[in-house]
Write a structure and sequence with these properties.
Length: 100
């Protein structure tokens, strides 16, 4: 698998979650820094599908909007399942609870 770890289900799901037992929130690198030869918004969808819980995009507001809209479309089209989203929501809520 030659993908960056941020986009790799082999790394995020198989190794980090299953093999190492990590149960926490996975946060991506800044999507503007991930060099994968595809549009940033497509990389964001791929990252969520691979197992990331939070997408980071810090530099360009127009790209943040593109990412947000593409993620909404991916959910609406079933490219990202509700079950997959719920896994992330639960992890994020557990983290918030632990910090409060």
């Amino acid at each position: 698998d030659t993908k960056p770890a941020t986009l790799s289900s082999k790394f995020l799901d198989s190794i980090l979650r299953k093999e190492l037992g990590f149960r926490g929130v996975i946060i991506t690198d800044d999507m503007e820094m991930v060099s994968v030869g595809q549009a940033i918004e497509e990389s964001a969808v791929e990252a969520i599908r691979a197992g990331a819980d939070v997408i980071i995009s810090t530099y360009t507001p127009s790209l943040q909007i593109k990412i947000f809209n593409r993620l909404k479309m991916a959910i609406a089209k079933g490219e990202i399942s509700e079950e997959r989203l719920n896994e992330s929501v639960i992890r994020i809520l557990r983290l918030k609870e632990a910090l409060w």
